[in-house]
Amino acid sequence: MKITISSRSGKSKSFPLTVDIPSDATVEQLKEVLHKKVRKYYPTRQRLTIGQQPLQDEKKLKEYDIKDGDTILFKDLGPQISWRMVFFVEYIGPLILHPIFYYFKKQIYGEDFEHGRIQTIAYYMIMAHFIKREVETLFIHRFSHSTMPARNIFKNSAHYHLLSGLNLAYWLYGPWNAVGTPDGEREEWFIWTCLATFVYAQISNFSTHITLRNLRPPGTKIRRIPRGYGFELVSCPNYFFEILAWISICALTKSLAAVLFISVGFYQMYLWAIKKHKNYYKEFKDYPKNRKAIIPFLL
Q: What is the C-alpha to C-alpha distance for residues 273 and 154, in angstroms, rounded to an integer?
């Protein structure tokens, strides 16, 4: 059948155009045909709609009652970047900035001093956290959306590069927390409690990411009810354990910069968790009623 593709903006010189496509074709196949016609618009850059209804890649055109001679509206989403690359760039910032502030203290702070024990422990905790995040990004996560607008990478990265990178590193590794200062040491039991909490939270967070990965077979967008460790209490235990890990860092370091980072992070994760929690209830009629969104028994 013949389908007319028109630009939603009406300003593109490439549209309208007509394509031939089998009547049982999927939206994804239509995007591929459109890409061959106009090489600039690769599939992830396209948004196709009927009226205001967006067309989902995996569905067939006939499921939207699209017939020969119909018109589909096109919107250019702009240059895209993979979510995997976005995550990688986000987390690489702190992994670069923290070693710079930790090892080049004389050049940055204008004096030489010996890092306190808390500074050293916190440095390795933070580095371990973001190395774990990079490993998960490269080898664990499966993304429901393959790409996002490339321009958004600057906004997404700012939270990590500025708050958990530049701001946190500067205040955490300065001479005011060095050996011999009041904030340079903690009681032994307290240090080990914070470390134990951090390790527990990181292992638990990793476990929930494995559970989420196994919910979606490779190359699919299948959605299922997550079950197992953590998920029986909240819809997003990965967020809860992330928060718990950073609370242990905040407690150990007494760093207001760390508190600022996780406070902003908690607000964003809370919004994401509420949205996911509501979507689970809409999508699955048998979704467990006793689960909270992000904090067990509370939120």
A: 23
